[in-house]
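Changelog-adjacent note: as of this version, every example in the card shows the full chain rather than a window. The one below runs 215 residues end to end.
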Amino acid sequence: MISKVSYSKKLTVLFIAILSLNVGAEGEQTKKVFISPGVVSVDVSHNGKVVNLKRNQDRDNEISDFYLPTTRGKIQPMHPFAPHLVETIGELAMINYIKQKSDGDDALVIIDTRTPNWVARSGGIPTAINVPYTKFKKKEKALEIMEDQLGVQVDDVFDFTYAKTLVMYCNGIWCGQTPAAVKALLSYGYPAAKIKYFRGGMQNWKALGLTTVNL
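Full-length structure tokens:
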């Protein structure tokens, strides 16, 4: 019969052995920080350069001070565009769109709708372009952007046949910049089915330690 003391020692040895699987020779933790099961990183192209999109592997990393205040803005609804059926997406869907864009899907545009001062202070999401929400609210400028960058034929009657799918984000669930941009686009007739709203925005992106770039 195994004594209680002997059994306890065996459990202790087993526990230490399990812990050691995630510790390197110098005592540092080596367990990877995953994006999703089995996925540590994704290579994407941003402005002609390869960017390794991943979560920060430093286990002491914390969200930047810039996104610590809890008093900003107003909480945006999960679906703020009713009755228009604009899809609200999460981080994994966002990463899939980034990969899709990086793989050469020209029918897709990822748009950071924040004003430049926000972008300069926190960076942006790989493959995105910065088009401030203020430009969408000005109809003349919005029509110019739709024609030049979003595949819309602007004439007496707008033709959205080749309108691109827009994946849009701003600071996060408390930020109204993307909702303002989306509502403006919908008022011009942009198809709701071709607009995706990443509600978590930069705050969630930063909270997960995901890669950011200069836009």
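Structural remarks: The beta strands are 41-46, 49-54, 87-89, 108-112, 129-130, 165-169, 195-198.
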